[in-house]
Structure to design on (230 residues):
């Protein structure tokens, strides 16, 4: 299994530009999570999906952030417009929710730098 | 409200000595508990989890964790530390009674193993 795949691995952009991060979950998994990690705030859950449906987006910082999951094998996290304070490592994780518990498997992350 | 505490920001251990990384939790029901490890510039990797049954859980890389319900703790342990164990360790919890898919994450503990 290839694991969770994220692209790009590194992104450097200028303030005001649109940024799109991509994630391919593990085949067969039905839940997908987007996290942000910074030194100051640690690991934060932004949004998660179950069966391609967003369940809780209360962690999304503001309207500049949006996430979609058009099918079971692909998700995007978009920031428009980007700001320097969005600089962080963004992780995607997936799991197979069985109704009782699951284990999340993380991708390698996208390191975003907004200048 | 659910919460997880990792009381130590950093733990220093000499190679070959036993190590313990502490985690305490608070949930209203029964917990599912997880440990993850993050190596530099990598995503989080699953180490082990407690769902039910034996209070001593064995995981990857020789790690184990002991669930203690009375002390609401789930400390991570290893009998003999390796320099390669140096990494950031995260504890996470979910309340079994909670249909929410979210894990509640600790702030992380940096483990440094000195040769």
């Amino acid at each position: 299994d290839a694991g969770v795949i994220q692209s790009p691995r590194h992104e450097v952009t200028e303030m005001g530009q649109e940024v799109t991060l991509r994630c391919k979950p593990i085949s067969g998994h039905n839940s997908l999570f987007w996290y942000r990690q910074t030194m100051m705030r640690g690991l934060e859950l932004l949004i998660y999906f179950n069966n391609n449906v967003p369940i809780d987006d209360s962690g999304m910082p503001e309207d500049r952030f949006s996430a979609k999951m058009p099918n079971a094998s692909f998700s995007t996290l978009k920031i428009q417009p980007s700001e320097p304070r969005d600089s962080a490592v963004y992780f995607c994780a997936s799991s197979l929710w069985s109704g009782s518990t699951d284990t999340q498997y993380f991708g390698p992350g996208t390191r975003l730098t907004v200048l | 409200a659910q919460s997880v505490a990792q009381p130590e920001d950093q733990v220093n251990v000499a190679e070959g000595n036993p190590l313990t990384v502490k985690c305490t939790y608070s949930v209203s029901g029964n917990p599912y508990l997880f440990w993850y490890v993050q190596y530099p510039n990598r995503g989080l990797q699953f180490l082990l989890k407690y769902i039910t049954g034996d209070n001593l859980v064995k995981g990857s890389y020789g790690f184990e964790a002991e669930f203690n319900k009375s002390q609401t703790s789930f400390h991570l342990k290893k009998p003999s530390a390796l320099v390669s164990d140096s990494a950031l360790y995260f504890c996470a919890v979910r309340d079994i009674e909670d249909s929410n898919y979210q894990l509640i994450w600790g702030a992380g503990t940096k483990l440094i193993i000195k040769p």
User: Anything to note?
Assistant: The first strand of chain B starts at residue 3 and ends at 5. The mean pLDDT of chain B is 93. Chain B touches chain A through 20 residues (CB under 8 Å). The CA atoms of residues 14 and 114 of chain B lie 5 Å apart.
